[in-house]
Design brief:
128 residues, 4-stranded antiparallel beta sheet, 48% strand
Length: 128
C-alpha cells in the first residue's frame, strides 16, 4: 500500500465519525451500507477493530470510537449579611474529563468470495 493510501486509511475514521455527527444519527448512515461489500465501510472508516466469525457464512465487523471532552468547572459566590458582618461564600464545582466509547457493528454474509453487509446493530443512544 502506498504512503498516500495509508494516510487516507488513518484519516478515514475521523471523516466517518464527523459525518455521523453532522448527519445526526449513526443508524441513518449505517443503513446505507446494507447490501454493500464490507470494503465500502473499510474505505470510509478504516479497518475494523474486531471481526467475529458467527458461523454459517456470517461475520460481525465492529468499529470502536472513543471520544473525550473536557467539562469545565464552575465557581459562584454569594454575599450574605450575618450578625458578624458581610460574608462572601464561594461554591466551586471542579471540572472533569468525560469519556464516551461507542461501537458500530455491521453483520455480513459471504457471497462469491466477498463479504456483504446484511444488517447492523443499533448503536447505543448516546452514540447516535
Amino acid at each position: 500500500m502506498s504512503t498516500h493510501g495509508a494516510s487516507l486509511l488513518t484519516q478515514a475514521p475521523k471523516v466517518f465519525f464527523i459525518a455521523i455527527a453532522l448527519a445526526g444519527c449513526a443508524s441513518d448512515i449505517m443503513k446505507n451500507y446494507v447490501g454493500q461489500p464490507v470494503e465500502s465501510v473499510v474505505l470510509d472508516c478504516g479497518p475494523p477493530t474486531a471481526i467475529v466469525d458467527l458461523g454459517q457464512g456470517e461475520r460481525a465487523y465492529q468499529w470502536r470510537k472513543v471520544s473525550t471532552s473536557a467539562v469545565s468547572g464552575t465557581s459562584s459566590g454569594e454575599v450574605r449579611e450575618t450578625k458578624h458582618g458581610t460574608v462572601y461564600e464561594e461554591t466551586e464545582t471542579p471540572g472533569y474529563i468525560e469519556r464516551q466509547e461507542c461501537f458500530y457493528t455491521f453483520y455480513a454474509r459471504a457471497s462469491g468470495g466477498r463479504w456483504f453487509i446484511t444488517n447492523f446493530r443499533q448503536p447505543k443512544l448516546e452514540c447516535e
